[in-house]
Amino acid sequence: MTITDAPKIVSSRFGFGDSHTLERFLATGGYQGLRKALTMTPEQVAAEVDQASLLGRGGAGFPAGRKWSMLRKAPVRYLVVNGDESEPATFKDHHLIERDPHQLIEGTLIAAYAVQASQAFIYVRGELALGLERVQSALNAAYSYGAVGRDIFGSGFSIDIVVHPGAGAYICGEETALLESLEGKRGFPRIKPPFFPAAIGLYGEPTVVNNVETMSNLPWIIMNSGAAFAALGEGASTGTRLFALSGHVRNPGVFEVEMAKTTFRDLIYAPVYGGGIRPGSDLKAFIPGGVSAPWFGPEHIDMSLSQEEVAKAGSMLGSGSVVVMSDQACAVRAAWRITKFFYRESCGQCTPCREGSGWLEKIMHRIELGAGRDEDLELLLDVCDNISPGVTWPPAQTTICVLGPSIPSSISSAVRMFKDEFLVHVKEGGCPYA
Amino acid sequence: MAPTTSARGPDEHSRMPAGSGSVQHFDSETRRKAEELISVYPEKRSALLPLCHLAQSVDGWLCPDAMREIAELVGVLPAEVLGTASFYDLLHTEKVGHHVVSVCTNIACLLRGGEELLAHAESTLGISPGSTDAEHAFTLEEAECLAACDRAPCAQVNGRFFGPLDPGTFDALIDDLRKGALDDVVPPHGVISRVARDVGLEASSANEREGAGSSDIGSGSGGRG
Ligand SMILES: Cc1cc2nc3c(=O)[nH]c(=O)nc-3n(C[C@H](O)[C@H](O)[C@H](O)COP(=O)(O)O)c2cc1C
Ligand code: SF4
Ligand code: FES
Questions:
Q1: ipTM score assigned to the predicted complex
Q2: Could you say which residues from 211 to 240 on chain A have a Cβ atom under 8 Å away from some Cβ of chain B?
Q3: Which CATH number fits domain B5-85: 3.30.1050.10, 1.10.10.1590, 3.40.630.30, 3.30.930.10?
Q4: What predicted TM-score, i.e. pTM, was given to this entire model?
Q5: Which CATH class is domain B99-179?
Q6: Does A210 sit in the ligand 1 pocket, CB within 6 Å?
Q7: CA B49 vs CA A34, A81, A357: distances in Å
Q8: Using the 8-state DSSP alphabet, how is residue B163 labeled?
Q9: Rg of chain B over CA atoms, in angstroms?
Q10: How distant is the Cα of A140 from the closest Cα of chain B, in angstroms?
Q11: Nearest-CA residue of chain A relative to B36?
């Protein structure tokens, strides 16, 4: 087991019961990163983040510094922080929002300064009632303290932040759907091109959309330098990262680990993290990065938590959520439930996604219930192929956003790894695990 | 989420906010809060969802008159408010129970008994997912992942998390809710946040764009406390 001695960058205050308060935040170095950033030029701040090569933590893993540099020059620009966190089994931002809202606000301010935003919005998933309260309270306190608003800390830099509540729709996590939602509309993803947020974003103005965890890393990076961040991890996977571990482990939870230096085995088995598979069972499979990601089996357990390594092996680290299935889990049932999720959450704009998700859900459900037909396996793969031709990874794109092409991942994984289970369901007319 | 309203008379019973003209549904306090919410956005329509949340926190659901007033406040048609609100799971364009119980059955909860928990919830509450009991005490929902998978299997009641739950702890929770023992912890349905912004916009760039006077909350009493 390797438990590296990397510092806790985003979860350093999680141990305190009052970690969400301004008092605790200030007593533990809070707003020092912002103070320092304001003594630098915006270009210097952006350069530091570029040097950290901080990969976005929202799922796509795009370098934050590069994203900022692509922002169209314009008198009005916006920063939007994505706290919609609705990808199944992802719950790291939930912890960051509830347990360290000031760190999120500080990071947002640093980013807003670097890109010279006119206004910033923190979009928080509507279900996170306590989180919304904590961020709004923290923001109120930050205004009183002078960290946000007019002439911040006497630097001449001014910016307002608005906390915006979501209203319950997974698709609003997709960045262009999020902007639609923030404009008071249905969360329909926009067609890219031309609607790349960096060019045409909120209200048609250039906009940066970044994830909550991405923002939460910024105070540390400014205080300790981009080089110090880049010294952690390996290759493109720098720094530490929060992993949300769930399913059949002894201790589900959120753990901050050094990227690339730590393996799935460490995360799942180390007593300080997952503590191993639940008693009386063995590892069957795990999902390495959210339900859009293809599954891995025990043969991948020693792979490092590196964005590149996981991509090379045909999956993704995605939103940093690892779902563990023991040998007591039914692969068909698991894949069916994930498909049902996509069916319910498809926004309906694109035919392959809207219709395909429903077809797949129905076929998967009848197999699980024991009413499957011999030809169903072929039918499943055919529908998958219609949604994303070739059913490759990364998936071929046929739709406005990547929700649609993500649907086949769980089904094709289950068929590839556990074909026998499908056959048994069909042959025996029922679920062998039920 | 098919509408099941039976009485389809004009106004009160109709889900569709028809008609135009001035509506006065919000009381003056709610109206003031609504105007504050609108003032922090560069464009009024951005306040549409926050205003729906606000209306729900007062009425418990999003009634046609509230939708009409929201439409007027943000400058869209009432049908656009309905059309937008109906896209979102948390906005209820029909009456729901005092407690909305959402049981998650998504992957992490599924692996730890989420479906069995939902089946148990159905029998305890005597209603199926998507429905409300006759007394309007409880609405039961099957939820997608609630971002609390470390507490699987889990549920939310009016936006507050409970988990991990088993049949025993679930029933105890429902008992407590019925007795009102959790009234401090669980806000009424529709209240997503008990904390409001206490300051208007300050940054000059934003104020310039909006023009004078329109972007300070409760001018006179706002500002840094
Ligand atoms: C269907 C879908 C859902 C998404 N949900 C989220 C989400 O909940 N939170 C998030 O930060 N990013 C989500 N994303 C990714 C965003 O589109 C965007 O890439 C991200 O917020 C950018 O932030 P980052 O560069 O800091 O990672 C989602 C993408 C898709 C296609
Ligand atoms: S792929 Fe699906 S979710 Fe994405 S825009 Fe198309 S229909 Fe909507
Ligand atoms: S799967 Fe139930 S809370 Fe995430």
A1: 0.97
A2: none
A3: 1.10.10.1590
A4: 0.95
A5: alpha beta
A6: yes
A7: 31, 17, 28
A8: -
A9: 20
A10: 6
A11: A162
B206:A186 CB<8 A: no
Longest Cα–Cα distance of chain B, Å, equals 59
> What is the separation of C-alpha A211 from the centre of its chain, rounded to a whole number of angstroms?
7
pLDDT at position B19: 54
Tokens of A46: 């952006």
For A201-227, write each residue's pLDDT tens digit.
999 999 999 999 999 999 999 999 999
Mean pLDDT of chain A: 97
Alpha carbons A24 and A28: distance in angstroms, whole number:
6
Residue by residue, DSSP assigns B40-104 as TSSSGGGGHHHHHHHHHHHHSS--HHHHHHHHHHHTS-HHHHHHHHTT-TT--SS---SEEEEEE
Query: Taking 50 as the threshold, does the pLDDT of residue A72 lie above it?
Result: yes
Residues of A in contact with B216 (CB under 8 A): none
Phi, psi of A178, rounded to the nearest 5 degrees: -60, -40
Domains B5-85 and B99-179 share a fold: no
- What confidence score (pLDDT) does residue B3 get? 40
Instruction: Please give the DSSP secondary-structure letter assigned to residue A396.
Output: P
Q: Are B80 and B87 in contact (CB under 8 A)?
A: no
Classified as helix, coil or strand, B177 is helix
A144, A170, A254 member nearest B144 (Cβ): A170
**For chain B, which residues make up each domain, given as ranges?**
5-85, 99-179
Q: Which of A337, A345, A410 to mutate to test the interface with B (most CBs of B within 10 A)?
A: A337
**Helix/strand/coil for A234:** strand
